[in-house]
Amino acid sequence: MKIKNFFNALIMAFLAIVLFVSCEPRSAEENENEPLITLNKDEIYLLGNCTDPINSREDGRFGMPSDYTVAVFTMLTGEKLLAHGDAIVGVRALVDGEVSDAEVIVANKLDLDNGIVARKSFSYVEGGWQYVLLDKPIKITGDTLYVGYKITSAGFVIGLEPTSKMTSTEYMLWNNEWYKLSEMGTKGYWSIQAIVQGGDYSAETQYAVSVDNLSVPEATRANSEFKATLEVRNAGIRLISGVDVIANIDGQEKTISVDKELMNGQSARVDVLLPIGEVEGTVEFSVKAKVKGQDIESDEFKSSLNVYAGLERNAILIEQFTGQNCSNCPAGAAAIKKAISELVNPDKVCWIAHHTYLPGVGDAFTIPGNFDVTNALGVSQYPMCNINRKEVEYEPGQVKLIWHPAATTSSLLASLIPMSADATIELTREFNVDTRELKVKVAGKSLKDLAYITVLVNQDNMIASQAGAQGEYKHTSPRAFLTKSTGDKLTLDAEGNYSVEYTYTIPEKVGSFACVLEDMEVVAFVHGDINDKNNREIYNADKIDILN
Q1: 332 inside domain
Q2: Beta strand 538-545 pairing with 520-527
Q3: Among residues 173, 436, 440, 495, which one has the fewest Cβ atoms lying within 10 Å of its Cβ?
């Protein structure tokens, strides 16, 4: 079950859910008296639920737009535990995002006050899978135990494995009550494993490595640098001293050395950067991993890439549609920020947020023109966004003009940036600090006969209230349109050349918010007619800071 808005259904289901409480197999005090067991990193076993599908982390995400506390547990029977080892030495769990107040927990009942056998705080490590060793191993006695984690986070957290079965072993703590996922109509397992040792693992694979969570852009540009990200995971029982990642694009091979000790199940994030030469069309990309010191390789992943030449885009344009009273909007903004930050060149993205509001509900950042854009593009709910005012496949099989910004990923942006532009754009500005007069000039050439230009002044880091967010929340929003909000029609000469200039005096304030020059920029984009569904696409975009 794919659960993009998991908690929306969750909250509605709470009233019909019966609280489940487990039996009480063993007290924390009894485990406290067990002798210490020496950790052997070379022989450990991962027991529980695990999936490492390439490029499909989005399938199991859930979350809330503001900080929330949640605990999730997988039940492991004493029979299963005894069959695989003598002690639990840690917990491995799949989470994603800037989580805080995080800890893994082993419990003998669903009670965070009285049922905890062991707990260990951890800091989030980039790469999704968190691999946390306990301070003291927990002896396996044949009793049922609950293994999981508790975190505080905002936005989407990834960790549910969708299946076709209603499983009765998965639990969630929400609003200080425990719930069975199967009683909530959710099919799947939490991606949680107990790290066990002390069993007979001679029949297990001794040395193995896999390439997981591979993110490969679908397109790139000639004479540029191509970037892919992945995780290399130790899929064998034995400890390995490192991994070599071998990547190849269009016949150019590169080896990235990962000099990190990896225990069974442990992974390391790898960025693959490869130069693209003077090519155009389709090229082949492949990647595999090899265990250092062993003649052991992973399966090879292969993919075709589109390489674009032609006019290079200065930047793509993301338009977000938001409002201060939109409780889901912070999650969308967080996804956009994260996706942009993960790009090789984040400056290749212009991001503006059109603040509008529902009837009868105000928004302090709305300026004249926001509604013109919203209405022309048919936006009727928030949060929403578009990229380059064109339909994109924002998720596999999902192609739309307007879609939820929480689905924004760096791989999506990286696939759109290389696409050839339909106009050149040269953006310059002059600014007089004393008079606060801004002069903007935009010049270039359009390959389309009909072209419009929009120029606006945008500002970041404006602190104000936001539904669904706690503490100081930083808003981004246009402060003024220098053109019509839907664009000024450009006059093109016989060769498609254009040149326009605009003058604007930046006030001390717009509405209730000071115009902080250090946080302001000019955004300009050349585009089709926003009211023409067949020709509204952004031809090219660019931005420049108000100050040097």
Answers
A1: yes
A2: antiparallel
A3: 495
Question: Residue 527: which of 459, 429, 416, 425 has the closest Cα?
Answer: 425
Residue 460's CB is within 10 A of a number of other CB atoms, namely 15
pLDDT in single tens digits along all 548 residues of the chain: 333 333 333 322 322 222 222 222 333 344 444 445 677 888 899 998 875 544 344 445 666 656 678 889 999 999 999 999 999 999 998 876 667 788 999 999 999 989 999 999 998 876 567 889 999 999 999 999 999 999 887 655 667 777 777 788 999 887 788 889 888 777 888 889 999 999 999 998 999 999 987 888 889 999 988 888 888 989 999 999 999 999 999 888 999 999 999 998 888 889 999 999 899 999 999 999 999 999 999 999 999 999 999 999 999 999 999 999 888 888 889 889 989 998 889 999 999 999 987 666 679 999 989 999 999 999 988 899 999 999 999 988 899 999 999 889 888 999 999 999 999 999 999 999 999 999 999 999 999 999 999 999 999 999 999 988 877 899 999 999 999 999 999 999 999 999 999 999 999 999 999 999 999 999 999 999 999 999 999 999 999 999 97
Q: Are residues 286 and 402 in the same domain?
A: no
pTM for the whole thing? Answer: 0.72
Of 251, 277, 308, the residue at which a domain comes to its end is 308
Same domain, 295 and 194: no
Which domain covers residue 452, as residue numbers? Answer: 316-545
Give the torsion sign (CA, 474, 480, 485, 488): negative
Distance CA 259, CA 278 (A): 33
The CATH number assigned to the domain holding 287 equals 2.60.40.10
Strands 177-180 and 209-215, bridge-based pairing: unpaired
Question: 101: domain CATH number?
Answer: 2.60.120
Residue 218 lies in a domain: yes
